[in-house]
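name: query_chain
kind: protein
chains: 1
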Amino acid sequence: MNKNKYEAIVVGAGIGGLTAAAYLSRNNIETLLIDKNIKPGGLVNTFSHNGFKFDGGARAFENSGVIFPMLKQLGIDIKFVHNLVSVGIADEIVDFVSQESLVEYQQLLCNTYPDNTEEIFLIIKEIKKVIEYMSVIYGIDNPMFCDNFTDKEYVFKELFPWLMKYIVNIKKAQKLNQPVEDYLHRFTDNQSLIDAVIQHFFKGTPTFFALSYFGQYLDYSYPMGGTGVLADSMAEYIIKKNNEILTQTEVLSVDVKDKTVTISNNRKVSYDYLIWAADLRVLYSNINTFHMKNKDRKKVEKTKSRILTSHGSDSVLSVFIETELNIDYFKDKIKGHCFYTPDKRGLSMSLLSKRDVYLKDKAGDDEYEALKEIILEYLELTTYEISIPSLRDETMSPSGKTGVIVSTLMEYDVFKQSIEKGWYENLKSFCVNSILKVLDRSIFPGILEKTINTICATPVTIENVTKGLEGSITGWAYSLNMPVQSSMTKIASSVETDIKDVFKAGQWAFYPSGLPTCIITGKLAADKVIKKIGKKS
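structure:
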């Protein structure tokens, strides 16, 4: 189309931006969606290699009363299968098939830490309490994605009763906003036990978010064809609605006075409303505040300072493994998706967080060898998210072979510094080999010999692909000076900015921001624009 004026421009085609653009399109608003990458989707993508299909970002989806009603409302048809989640430590694995699975998980912890049985009982009790709060919050399809408000039976028999319970339980959940590690220290001093429960969550993850996940495990689904099908389907919807998606296109500057964005090839495009669903640093770094009133300028400069001095949340190290092992081999191990901890000691024993002190007196090759020791120790103690796509969709791997995705949390600085030192490629190879050896002597004996090929994605890879700060996959890192809203009770205001006619959405708009939250903020931002323009679908 190559128009120079749109009613709305959305920057960033991750799931938040796709949601915003989809709902603007549903309401017949002329929309341009812009993204730097080759195709839309961001961290929701699936790629092919040697006949194997791998999920490059999200490994599965938790519905949370959001994804399915959104797709229904947009009229997008995707086939899903249930994604069973397992949790394991060393030789014992528990499949989360019902709420009763928490009893088995409790027994797993007691078997692993027999001196802490009473403390484990108290922790499980807390998990059940938080799950109860969140089960009420997610008790019905999110009303944001519902068109039944003219149905009196729905409104009075379902919506209102739920709303009363929601108000009570959201306040209870929000009180559990402190980092989960700090919270669990109320119940035990055994750091290894705490690690086993929480070390697959990001640093600073709020208690209500982390502990409720043991209930969310029952709510996971997998789209046939891979997680990228979700992003592809939403992009197709936007195009079918006669709107435009520009990929491999960079936003060079934003003029909030003239309401224009300058994109690749110095093309200027005007907007009535702008939704920023990308890294907020880019937006605020390019704002000219000279034309603003003094009061407005101070607000923007204060926000800009907080954004530019904040950090991204943890990132991940992922290895995509192509094996000659038949899918039946893996069926005996896990059901498709597993959070697995090979060693009960936990990451509190790891030197990784103290590596700068440990490496201080090292230089040259000695420094690299010391770093390898630290990384190896970390990889032996960490928790892995293991996903086998073809256990849910057999077409995801060639016949007689199986693709395995293994991920673990990893600090961005480790790999960023290795680039500066010239160790990056060697460190990647070392990590791949170390992870394969850990898996070979624990959950997947024989996988080392049967591995055909591997692909390694580091936090730097994620940064390069998503263009997001420090390879973060859930937005901002926890801090006491969060640059965005972090209260669930105030999520509706999270999409507002201090810039006229500019809204924000996606992983950088709210903390913490998983996929359902990105969708919610995308819908909220779109609703703000729709209301201002005054169009209805």
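note: Residues 179 and 205 are 5 Å apart (CA to CA).
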